[in-house]
């Protein structure tokens, strides 16, 4: 009984691991959840922030490679002077909507995690995904996201330590903006090899990478999906076969042992005694007494 319980437990663990692997492969990483985490983490990490000071917020070890920054500003000063922090230049004459007395800007740099959270079909990222989100700031970070009413220049974005090589029209780097709903918009870069925008969000630079047609890409995904299912099913089948074979061998051995025990019970019964941990047969008496064939003794 214990053997079968352990066997089914092993099968359950293997099946659960394979299902989690397939689910993780298909679902990927949630960019919206990451932004929400940054908001909550910055809100708890910064206490009594000084207006106009940029704070670098250290992230947990499992987010190594990402950067998180925070700044709190007065709306009046922000409208007159703008803000030039991180990789974004927010020019003057930006009016937050709805209007608030103080606002807070959270800057993000996903670093080497960028391609796990943001993807553009048929394109590759050649720069990290960076972004900024504006909130109301009654104390540190509020829950209300703000928009901008731009009455002058657009917002400028630049990417540090990125060398861009312009080639043919189909290989020229372009700017991409990611929306909160997973959408994206690709635009040409500015004359200064940067990007411009009129609203908050996440941004990067992409180049074409996959010239294969959509039908071929769908076939590749289907083949990979069926390969994963086949591999998981085959592995479980092999485990079941091994367990079934082992159980059959054990049952056959037990039947043979019982048959031998029954056969031994049909013979002459002997007394038994123990020697250590072994049970040994013992004759209780001598059945045939020795006799002398001839009385003559020399």
TrEMBL record:
UniProt keyword list: Membrane, Signal, Transmembrane, Transmembrane helix
Signal peptide coordinates: 1-24
Origin: domain of life: Eukaryota
Residue ranges crossing the lipid bilayer per the database entry: 226-252
CC annotations in GO: membrane
Keyword Oxidoreductase: no
Pfam families, sorted: DUF1191
UniProt-recorded name of the protein: Concanavalin A-like lectin/glucanase domain containing protein
């Amino acid at each position: 009984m214990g053997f079968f319980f352990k066997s089914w437990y092993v099968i359950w663990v293997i099946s659960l691991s394979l299902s989690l692997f397939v689910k993780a492969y298909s679902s990927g990483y949630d960019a919206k959840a990451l932004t929400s985490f940054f908001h909550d983490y910055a809100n708890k990490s910064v206490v009594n922030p000084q207006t106009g000071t940029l704070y670098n917020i250290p992230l947990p070890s499992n987010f190594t490679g990402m950067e998180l920054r925070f700044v709190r500003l007065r709306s009046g000063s922000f409208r007159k002077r703008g803000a030039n922090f991180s990789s974004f230049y927010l020019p003057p004459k930006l009016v937050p909507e709805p209007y608030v007395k103080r606002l807070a800007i959270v800057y993000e740099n996903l670093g080497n995690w960028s391609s796990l959270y943001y993807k553009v079909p048929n394109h590759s990222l050649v720069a990290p995904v960076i972004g900024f989100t504006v909130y109301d700031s009654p104390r540190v970070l509020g829950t209300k996201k703000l928009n901008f009413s731009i009455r002058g220049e657009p917002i400028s974005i630049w990417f540090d330590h990125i060398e861009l090589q312009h080639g043919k029209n189909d290989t020229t780097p372009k700017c991409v903006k990611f929306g909160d709903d997973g959408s994206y918009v690709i635009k040409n870069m500015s004359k200064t090899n940067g990007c411009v925008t009129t609203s908050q969000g996440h941004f990067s630079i992409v180049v074409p990478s996959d010239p294969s047609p959509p039908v071929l890409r769908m076939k590749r995904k289907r083949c990979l999906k069926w390969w994963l299912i086949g591999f998981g099913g085959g592995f479980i089948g092999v485990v079941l076969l091994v367990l079934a074979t082992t159980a059959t061998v054990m049952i056959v051995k037990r039947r043979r042992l019982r048959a031998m025990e029954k056969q031994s019970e049909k013979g002459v019964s002997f007394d038994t005694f123990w020697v250590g941990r072994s049970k040994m047969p013992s004759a209780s008496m001598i059945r045939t007494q020795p006799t002398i064939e001839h009385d003559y003794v020399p």
